[in-house]
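Q: Could you write out the predicted structure for this multi-component system? I'm mainly interested in how the pieces pack against one another.
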Amino acid sequence: MFNQIDLEYNGPVNDPKASWLITVCSVLGFLIVLTLVLLNYDAHNAGLRPYVEGSLSSSGVTNPVTAVLLNFRAYDTLLEIAVLLIVVIAVLPLRNAKTSLVRCIEVTNHDLVLTSLQRWLAPAVLMFAGYLLWAGATQPGGAFQAGALLAGACVLMFQTGVYRVNYTSIMARSLMTCGLAMFIAVGLALIWFEGSLLKYPQDYAGVLILLIESGATLSIAICLASLYSSLIDIPGKGHAATSESGS
Amino acid sequence: MSSALLYSITGLGLFAIGLLGIVLAGHVMRKILALNIMGIGIFMLLIAIAKQDGSFVDPVPHAMVLTGIVIAAAGTALALNLMVRLHRMSDPKQRKPK
């Protein structure tokens, strides 16, 4: 059914120069209006900062950004991890789920620089991600930064070709969902104990936030790494099958 | 001119560049890149507005941007995957020669 798909639009255009001019002029006008609005925008109130500072002591952490992300507006973060998981589910090609998570593959051409870089960097990145996760309570840092760093280490391992991760294995799937599962479990437990979703008791807020962040770090790292590898590691078998059905 | 204002105007410029790219670019890949540039412009504007006065920083826009970056990365990955699939599903014999 997809006999001919062009990723590049090359349909009829009446006057390409005129349409180009109209687009540029309208975008420039839009930019000028927005800049004027910005220049006259001097009545900036304090925003939500007084509210955040006022209740920071009861949030369990001392970094205001982490407090907003995981305490005051924890719904956003919960839904964000859900969105990431949905994208991974949409992208993940259905492949053999029986193999293990990490499998050593035979390296045909040794890239000395990349391989030694990966050997030196991967443990350091792992340690630094743990530090970022821990530091998120008091300084800039937290689950997202640590997860992105871990995903970077996974990409480096993917590039060297020493380890090939199977992102459809049961192990990888459970790691991807553990962040959301832990978040929802904490929320449900808090409904039971506190009567409201994600309303932390003051004494345990710091521990619960660290628990949620640890699960979220693992999930974000594996999800981002699988999204990266999905662009490159598309199996040839599926490709042949789809092009046969397309013709 | 304060540095926050400079960053805000740069963010607006990036937004306009992305908007132009989405409208004018022919290829889907360029449109996805333009969408990313647009998003980065919005993030930059939000971060700059959070520190308008210099003395205090509003943490809520920072948290919003942190959420938005992850969502933007996920959306880009989904769009790129759809593009690659579309490209592979199209019949190479009937593809127009460039």
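A: Regarding packing and overall arrangement: The two ends of chain B are 49 Å apart (CA to CA).
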